Every structure is written in structure tokens, then in C-alpha cells.
Amino acid sequence: MLPRRAFVLLAGALFLTVGFSPAAPAAAETPEQFVGTLGEEAIRVLGDSTITPEQRTAEFRRLLDKGFNMPLIGQLVLGRHWRTATEEQRAEYLKLFEDFIVQTYSVRLGQYNGEKFRIAGGRAAPDNTGDTLVTTEIIRPNGPPVRVDWRVRKAGDTLKVVDVIAEGISMLITQRDEFAAVIQNSGGKVDALIDRLRRRQL
């Protein structure tokens, strides 16, 4: 079974944004405001104790689709194997990739333990991609703060998160290495990864 550290970074960082509480701006005009607004929406989801697990899962998927560029993340995670995959393989992989994240980590939305987070600022990514790194600090009741950087990229007229970097560990890079290992150990077959995702055995 593959380690799930990367998915923990993604889903964990998303639900931990619920501690952000300044007034939400009228429009997410900057990457910092965008991340803050996403946190405000998560507050509403986690603060509602009346919703069912199914509704919580649906809300998690909505937040994920709204805040994260899942097709791009999925493509980058597959790495060089994306180029050799057929259109049918790509389509099924992307669907299974998102489904796996939603199914595995939507339950974490019910594990909010009072963590807070604050936006510490934003800066241009150093790789000339045009991305912005929004730095946040998660304040835990019984532990040292955790630094989380959100890589935000313009997608048309909207902003989307394309990576989450917790304490220097990139979700995207970590998951890419793990997926690549599955494919390599299966003779370079993308179908092997798709099958593992289909059976939720990662």
C-alpha cells in the first residue's frame, strides 16, 4: 500500500483553513484573498453539525473543484507517463484521481480540532511560472505551528491552487514519486496505476 502523505497534505491543509476568520473580501482579487475566501467557505461546511456524511463529502468535492485545479494536478502527478497515456486512460485516471482524494479524505472534514491559520503573505514563485506562493501558518492547540505554502496559478479568469507545500514537502512531487513507483513496478504500465486507483488500493 502506498504512503498517503501527499493526500494528507492536500486534504489536511484544506480542512485546516477553517480557522481563518477575518471578514471575507467581496471578490478574491489576489491569491491571498483567494486562499482566505476558500477558508471562509470551509468554515461554513465544518461549522454545520446537521449535515450528513454524504453531504459533507459532496461539499468537500465542491470545495476541491472550486479551489484546486484538479485536472492539472492530476496531469503533473502522472508526470512523464501522461504523454504516453491514451485519451481513454487519461480520462479515467483523472476521474479516479479526484474520486480517490474525495473518498479517502472527506472524512477528515469531521475531525476539526480547533486549529487556526493565518496568512503570512504572498510572493512570486522562484521558477518564473507566474505562480504565487501564499504562505500560511497553521496554529495548533498542542503543538508548534506548521508552515503551509499554497501555489496559486491563474486559470483563465480564476485562481486555482496547483500544489500544497507543508513544511517544505510538496504534495505534487511526493504523489508523483509514489505513482511513478507503482507504474515502474508494473513494467511501465499506466493501466496498473489506474487499476489500483479503481480498487482504491493506494
CATH topology: Nuclear Transport Factor 2, Chain: A
Report the CATH architecture: Roll
| Total beta strand runs | 5
Kindly report the oligomeric state of this protein: single chain
Order of helices and strands: HHHHHHEEEEEHH
Name the average pLDDT.
81
Provide keyphrases for this structure.
single chain; 202 residues; alpha+beta; Nuclear Transport Factor 2, Chain: A; 8 helices; 49% helix
Structure overview:
By secondary structure, the chain is an alpha+beta fold. It has one domain (5-198): Nuclear Transport Factor 2, Chain: A (Roll). It contains eight helices and five strands; from the N terminus they run H-H-H-H-H-H-E-E-E-E-E-H-H. Helix 2 (31-46) runs antiparallel to helix 3 (53-67) and helix 4 (70-78) packs across helix 6 (87-105). Helices cover 49% and strands 19% of the residues. The chain has a five-stranded antiparallel β-sheet with strand order 1-2-3-4-5.
